[in-house]
Design a protein that fits this description.
The complex is a heterodimer.
Chain A: E1 4-7, E2 10-13, E3 19-25, E4 31-37, E5 44-49, E6 56-57, E7 65-66, E8 76-78, E9 87-94, E10 103-104, E11 108-112
Parallel strand pairs in A: 2-11
Antiparallel strand pairs in A: 1-3, 3-8, 4-5, 4-9, 5-6, 7-8, 9-10, 9-11
Chain B: E1 3-5, E2 10-14, E3 19-21, E4 24-26, E5 32-38, E6 44-50, E7 56-58, E8 64-68, E9 73-78, E10 87-94, E11 103-104, E12 108-113
Parallel strand pairs in B: 2-12
Antiparallel strand pairs in B: 1-4, 3-9, 5-6, 5-10, 7-8, 8-9, 10-11, 10-12
The chains are: A mainly beta, B mainly beta.
Amino acid sequence: EADIYQTPRYLVIGTGKKITLECSQTMGHDKMYWYQQDPGMELHLIHYSYGVNSTEKGDLSSESTVSRIRTEHFPLTLESARPSHTSQYLCASSHTGSGNTIYFGEGSWLTVV
Amino acid sequence: AQSVTQPDIHITVSEGASLELRCNYSYGATPYLFWYVQSPGQGLQLLLKYFSGDTLVQGIKGFEAEFKRSQSSFNLRKPSVHWSDAAEYFCAVAPNTGGFKTIFGAGTRLFVKA
């Protein structure tokens, strides 16, 4: 099992604010992911990373950006939040050597007012 | 096109009754297969996975799943449901390279009645 930590778990911010959702994993997984999920809906991959200094956009277009400067850390940033960004953001990771099974953090709930 | 279908949006079962959640996939080769569970406000927790070998896979919390190649299915089962099993369940498929190419189904919401 992977230990993946997301902070904050819940965030309410005003429109136009810059926010960063933090994600760290302690299992040395090489791949990391960000998914977006609206309540009761399916998951959409918005960003992924193969390793340090590697970031790619996922299937769902997102105005957010990510960085991967350290293996264990994969933060997501919104430069100017809007109400349409209100959603749950799930960070995840996997290891190439173990079949790339994806393990998830507990999620960050973002509400933009 | 590669896809995962969970035909049931929601299912209601009585506590103590058996459960089967359906999952069908469309994939070019035998994929890796997964079931996850998500409690309200939480992330997804891996219940079980199938890579190869025995087609009946045991997972955590008393769940099992059976891979049927001829039916392109990977149904999740539990012989006796507990109230704490009420949650959203996601089936997922991935190539043997896994990772970002993992495809998740839309989920099935399980309600448990007393």
